[in-house]
Design a protein that fits this description.
CATH superfamily of the largest domain: 2-enoyl-CoA Hydratase, Chain A, domain 1
Number of strands: 9
Radius of gyration: 19 Å
Strand content: 5-15%
Structural class: alpha/beta
CATH topology of the largest domain: 2-enoyl-CoA Hydratase, Chain A, domain 1
Oligomer: single chain
CATH class of the largest domain: Alpha Beta
Number of helices: 11
Number of domains: 2
Distance between the termini: 16 Å
CATH architecture of the largest domain: Alpha-Beta Complex
Largest sheet: 6 strands, mixed
């Protein structure tokens, strides 16, 4: 499957080499999500698992903001009127977006400027690498609208990134985490000025995309699966995973390039 010519209806999509660049497309409202954009993003990340022309993903801000979460009028209003079956269908769909991001097999670099709140904070959380501007404001604000902090995997993933106590504070209070806190706590890999943010995020994704992408997919799988493993099980799983990677042509290419004192060109097989 190739996704270079993908034409989504509810977000922007472009290819830079083998990097898929995604940008939410409602900058006048700080890029909120709708039922339709949730579903289309979920389906796109599912398709990425089979995409032969994409090696990495960059999720970018738009108009000075990343994402303001679920749209108050398009999502929250209708949810108030739904029955339990409808509500569970919605919450499972939003969770499926996170699952699709985790299982897409492609490293995801997310660049946050302005607000990343609610589901926007979750999308950043579910990414592999996160960059942000000093002006970025991140909030898991579910409790501020009368909901639990355990949304879209937040109680499972966030403590592993920032620690249990810090995650508990953010999820109970719904307060804003500043960019400086986010970097200091490990949520953000680093802070980048706004005029350089997008370029640096795409360049980082491109650098990753030039690597052994079959092996990168294995790394992403292990990073996710080893959450639930004991140490002995994890070491054995990594032994098996690495043995699989040693059968690839990319491993052979790297060896031959090293012998020739050259830079390997990986092809993902």
């Amino acid at each position: 499957m190739k996704l270079a010519d993908l034409a989504p209806k509810h977000f922007q999509w472009r290819m830079e080499g083998r990097v898929a660049c995604i940008r939410l497309d409602r900058p006048e409202r700080k890029n909120p999500l709708t039922f339709e954009s949730y579903a289309e993003l979920r389906d796109t990340f599912r398709d990425l698992a089979q995409a032969e022309d994409v090696n990495a993903v960059a999720i970018l801000p738009n108009g000075g903001n990343f994402c303001s979460g679920g749209d108050v009028h398009d999502i929250i209003g209708p949810l108030v009127a739904m029955d339990m079956k409808g509500l569970l269908g919605f919450t499972r769909m939003t969770g499926d977006l996170v699952k699709a991001m985790l299982h897409c097999g492609k490293p995801i670099v997310t660049a946050v400027d302005g607000v990343a709140v609610g589901a926007g904070a979750i999308m950043a959380m579910a990414s592999d690498i996160r960059l942000a501007t000093p002006q970025a404001k991140t909030a898991f604000l579910f409790t501020r609208v009368g909901l639990a902090g355990c949304d879209m995997g937040a109680c499972a993933i966030l403590p592993r990134i920032v620690g249990q106590g810090r995650a508990a504070e953010l999820l109970y209070t719904g307060r804003t985490m500043s960019a400086e806190e986010g970097e200091r706590w490990g949520f953000y890999n680093r802070l980048v000025e706004a005029d350089a943010l997008e370029g640096e995020a795409v360049a980082l994704a491109a650098r990753i995309a030039e690597g052994p992408n079959f092996a990168h997919g294995i790394t992403k799988t292990q990073l996710n699966q080893e959450w639930n493993m004991g140490l002995d099980q994890a070491i054995e799983a990594e032994a098996q995973a690495q043995a699989i990677c040693m059968q690839t042509r990319d491993f052979e290419r790297a060896y031959k390039a090293f012998v020739a004192k050259d830079k390997p060109v990986f092809e993902g097989n």
